[in-house]
## 1
Amino acid sequence: MRHNLLIVDDEELIRQGLRARILYLNIKANEIYEAKSGAGAIEITETYPVDIVITDIRMPDMDGLTLIRELKKSGKNMKFIILSGYAEFSYATTAIRLGVNAYLLKPLSNEELKKTFDKLYQKMAEESQIKNALWMQKKMGREKSEYDMEKRLNSLLLDSSDAISGVKSLAKTCQIDSSEIDTDTFLTLGAIHINSETYDNAAFRQIDHDLICFSIRNVFREIKASCRKQIVNSLSDKNRLYAFFFMKNPEKLRNEVEHIFVQMHAVLEKRMGIYLTMGIGRTVHSIDQTLAQESEGALRQRIIYGNSNLYFYEDIGIFSEKNFPVSQVQVLSSYLEKNEIHKIKQLLREIFSEDLLHKYGMPYVRIMWVRILNVILQYYEKKERDASSMEKLLMSFDLPNQIESIPEIRQRIIDIIMDCVHEEMISDLDARSKISMAVAYISEHYSEDLAINDLATRYGMSANYFSSVFKTETSESPVNYITDLRMKRAQELLKDTTLSVADIARRVGYEDSQYFFRVFKKHTGVTPLSFREKTNGRLFR
């Protein structure tokens, strides 16, 4: 195994000499850093990973022993070798107390240096083996504990005879601190379905479902929430997970579940290409065989009303209403794409009309608001907006709970969405401006190595977004645009100059003349020499 070394000495010749000896003796080192002072050494260890520090004792600003004391405060597992021309016993005893791994006196022979490193490397390898063994032991213990929990909860959900009495017992089974759970605590269960789009987007295959489930569980657990929560895989359906939520306030519990789902949606879809639908059962005090049935029943609404949404069992009656405007939310997506502001405003007024608000009440507002947030988040995903835009949108999640009158609810929601649209329009204008700059840059630098990633970085975009906007503005991909420009210039040079094909290839950005030959023929249908002969009536070589 190779390690990163740091040589600390105020004399450059000694540092360089020690580096040369380490390389000469074939002591395996990944990186060898140098510092001429204790302060410099500390800065390096804060910037780079360092495994072994080789330091002199006597240095102007900070002696070697003080340096070791300071580095040990960092908590990093570094090893230390002291090199010194001073053989006083006091230095050695202090070094031993500090846990220094070797104390070597100058002048040092190659044999002694090699022997010291061999012993130290062996010690580090043994420590690594012990550490890995302990880590594996703990990991296996954690995995067994999680699997036991998973089995127990799945058994509870699928077999009513295997019942747990009370929410407190269930919380304990979920490995949640049951001291925070009492008889006043409410519970709800979510059935999470992994949509087929997850596998259709080429990021994942069916065999990757373990990785997908692992990602979902990690994101779920990382989301901060006021409720207590736990998530487990279904043992009967690989595309299903179950989420448990505990909270004393039943009204707030629903809000927390909605918030968690929207955040999962924002992270999993945008960053990972994982698409989810979730069904939530009733909020209850006690546990019975309907716990899973209700959440699955809510989830089945996706068959009628679409995936990537959140469904509550208690809202099924609302959804069954003939005039419930579920499909209108999807129309919003197409209006956003086309920046049809007038139509967006009209649609939102229809969705949040006074008649509908009076008819369905606040549950309707909450359902539609979560749906609309999902649509906007998907819109942002396509546009690759920065994280701050997403955060701003998520901050407005709790809006329905903050407003008292129907007209205010409608207006505030319209205002938020209009802000998003206007920001996006400004962003698009900015992107178009940057593409114009990129086109000008390509025209001047076509003879250089032009990588799409580098161009995108130059103009503050991701490569995918840069390529997408570039094609929209020029009707060509960046690669085709650059190739067309190079071929056009090559044709001019073939026609107007006597330069060789190899020279022309280099002038238009191709170091490999054979590759240029193939690209030119593919682009024009003839070889460069044939093109010159046809256009000039003569052949220049």
Note: The longest strand covers residues 186-194.
## 2
Amino acid sequence: MGSAMLTAEAKAGCPSASELVREAIVDADRTGVKAILYEGAVLGFFADLARDDPADFHAVLATLQPGERNELRKRLGVAFPGLSTGERGERGEKPRQSAISASPRAGEQGRILDEKTQLELLDAARTRFDGAALPEVSAYPVRALGVTMGEACAAIAERGQVDPAMVGQSLLAAAALLCQSRADVRTLAGVKPLSLFALTVAGSGEGKSTADGVATAPIERWQRERTREHAELVDTMLGAPRTKSDPAPSLPPDPYILMRDPTIEGIRRDFAKGRPSQGAFTSEAGAVTAGYGMSPEHKIKTAAGFNALWDTGEVSVSRSMTGRLQLYDRRLSIHWLVQPDAARAALHDAVLSNIGFWPRFLCAWPAPLPPRRAEPFHPDRDPRIRRYWQRCTELLQPQGDDCSGLPVIEFDDRANDLAGRFFERMEVEAKREGRTLVDVRPFALRATEQVFRVAGVLAVFDGRDVVDIEHAARAVEIVVYSLETWRSIFGDREKAQAGANALRLYAWLLKQRGAQASEVAMLKIGPKPLRSRDLRDTALTTLEQYDLAGRDGSDWIALR
């Protein structure tokens, strides 16, 4: 379609003009798009379309590059693409503008958005950043989980409409909880627990509870039964007749193996009272990442406590009021599911990474789910999930009361050779300038031990007493996936910080009258961390790039 024809159709106000514009934009090459896009008649049509049919206007805008969208707004003289300015086809000196809500006209101050609208717009902006901030990571290696876990993962992801990465993390962490009380594994650094720490970052409504609930269902059932038996036993012991001289009965340890309090103090308390092998599983891990234990004055001690549990299973703490708590050979596996907002600050804390806290975690950050279907999920009806549950039940019988002197699962020669080559590769990629893993060095240097642990869990779950090359290769796939995720988070710290600053400025703009402010005002009363020209300008450029802010004369206005 030629430019002249498009112009004629637009001028005539043809009912199919919107389709004609879209067709031209979609079919033309970029040069052609730019040639027809900014003709006066077409601009007039766009202005009418923006005012009279915002949905169609947004549909057209969606086909353009961010730079082209910004140029179109500039040429239209509008700050916000949802509504038009002026009369039909008008492009005057000062066309009327529209912001997120009622934007100020000449001489007006505008109004402040209500809190609900602010939160909704900020949440939408965060989603936009989440989708763009993380480079694409390879698909989660479902097959690397093995036959039983892999089939269960596929079934839960498909039937429960949950991302496979989230399901895989849940299943692997549950398997580690079951296997860590049955064996240790020999690594290049000596014998280590089979415990795993897993972190999954996902927003609300992404299926966190579904994935973790199905993965831990047999453990929950086992725990419920043991709790009832334990209560009956305690009642019997306390109700038995005894004289005043008889010592109080020595009660059995608490039967729980699933902790719902993810804090280090809660974990220590549960180990002191309960079983030596437990798991901290929670879909609300913000209590850890943003809680008291991670405050500046406590985070190093908190991280050190978790590190010791991961390394050797030792609990050692001294308090002036309660005395010393010293426990050995405890086993802790973790799966923390946390929302992006709660994760960002903690994940980008250089101290936690440098002391080896986050490098001990296998990480997944799945992309947001597409809209889901209204279909009921009955995991008990799927034979693939039932087979996984059956294997979990077998590993629960019996649960030992001591993790000292556990059997050591060994790598065979081929598996050891593979792990050795992986170790040497990590050393090169992490330590030589310009190589792929330099930005995530602590994670790369910890990756080989993760391979040994994951391979050991896979082997024990499969009922093997030796790790062969198949288990080792599958473990490498899982660990590499985690490394890719960590790279996507930490590989470009400046970009991540720019995104965080941009969101901070956007949130502040939403609170101003008319959702707008001048550059001078930003420096004087804007967010304190951004009261410098360089940081402010970078934040504004980032917001403009993501179509979240636009210039309105001397002011900047928040867009949606």
Note: The domain at 112-133+492-560 is CATH 1.10.10 (Arc Repressor Mutant, subunit A).
## 3
Amino acid sequence: MQPLDTLDWISISLYFLVLIGIAIWVIRKKEENTEDYFLAGRNIGWFVVGASIFASNIGSEHVVGLAGTGASNKLPLLIYEIQAWVVLILGWVFLPFYARSGVFTMPEFLEKRFDARSRWVLSIFSIIAYVLTKISVTIYAGGVVVAALLGIDFWTGAIATVILTGIYTVLGGMRAVVYTETLQAVLLILGAAVLTYIGLDKVGGWSSMQETLGPEYFNMWRPATDPDFPWPSLLITSTIVGIWYWCTDQYIVQRTLTARNIKEGRRGTIFGALLKLLPVFLFLIPGIIALTLKMRGELHWDSPDEAFPVLMSNLLPSGLRGLVAAGLLAALMSSLASVFNSCSTLFTVDIYKKLKPNTPEKKLVRTGQIATVFVVIVGIIWIPIMANISGVLYEYLQSVQAYIAPPITAVFILGIFYKRINATGAFATLIMGIVVAFFRIALELIKENLDPDSFLFYLGDMNFLSFGAWFFLFCLIFLVVVSLLTKAPDREQIVNLTFGTITEEEKNNNKSSYSWVDIAISILIILIVIAVMIFFNGK
């Protein structure tokens, strides 16, 4: 890799100066209450909401990993990156219920729809999952990227980035997060777009890549008998995970709750869905370009995850190289800021406030700031552990989502669509789901010591995509059966929280919150997703 020169450092310095300027501007706006600190006063427009959704989703490990997918024979994983249509489900289906309920968090919504038990289970589980997965993986991958790009020590890069991100997240709250993420989204898109354009020109266009790699390489659909990526299981499980991540996870949904009304929030999700189409073209294709150049002997890298930074280093001119490097730093910082703020919100609203309901607003804001600091410290402490196990864990985390998503997705979907689902069914399903998820993880770790003919070995050895699909079906049946065997929920409690209990007034309010433009753009996004699915068929 070529080292960064003076122009590159100027580009990176300008990025940090603008970032600091935005952070200072936001921090000067005092956060007087929890609504302002955790949800930016619920006064954010659609453009910032959409950009924040996109920037939160795209982290440095995401960029590098997706390019690595393109540079290796794992194109079926592309399906996780064309879930723009699932983002639309958030805006059109779930958001109206969240907004009407006036909640801060997803566990809080479960309490309103069911009871406090479900809230406690989801909030504690979410915080633990964030600290052990999102934060640790993002910090480790970011440290590797920073060290490679800037030529500095891993620890220096990781800790400096975490501390800088932590400072403006602690001081500025959600408002600082969403506005800095808007800058970071723009920068990331511009930088990756330039790299894709120059890369395609370098290899001689799309047809030239196909000639080098062969058409079958561009096939994301494997036979149903494929041991790694059977297409039916891939399609079903990726959808389940997608709904969990985009429609029920605090990490993403919190961005839409900052909108000033349902109309702005929905348009934010539509804009975010439009941006979600870009990773295919901006990150996956550079990985394919890097592989093409390697096969032609024009580029060298050892690991597929090195494809993006090596391509960037060798193809981009001085100055632009720094711009793309700043884009990768932006991706890292936006992901960290998002998860820091989400953890802080979950702890303050769902745990601390529940234990101490009479706490003054200013003290709750202070508690949220302290919680963010604590999460930052834990994240840094976790780095050496990640350094030792990341090679296994990062790939493994992709399958873990297939285990934790089914019960949560089932509870949220049926909770909204089926008014008969009650608190007992939701609580039992969440507890059962968590137990089964950890049981499956344990079986994977010890399966080599099990009898190959035993049921436990079969359960631990089953393809994670197939397991996720069957597990989701089991969760749905379990949730319905338990609910039907126990008392039905009171209508007064669930009014406007399910499709079957929406009042005429709220139906009219919802109809007035969108126009034909919103519908047309949403349909266009779905058509583009279908077109991408058809295009990558290996023919």
Note: The CA atoms of residues 21 and 180 lie 10 Å apart.
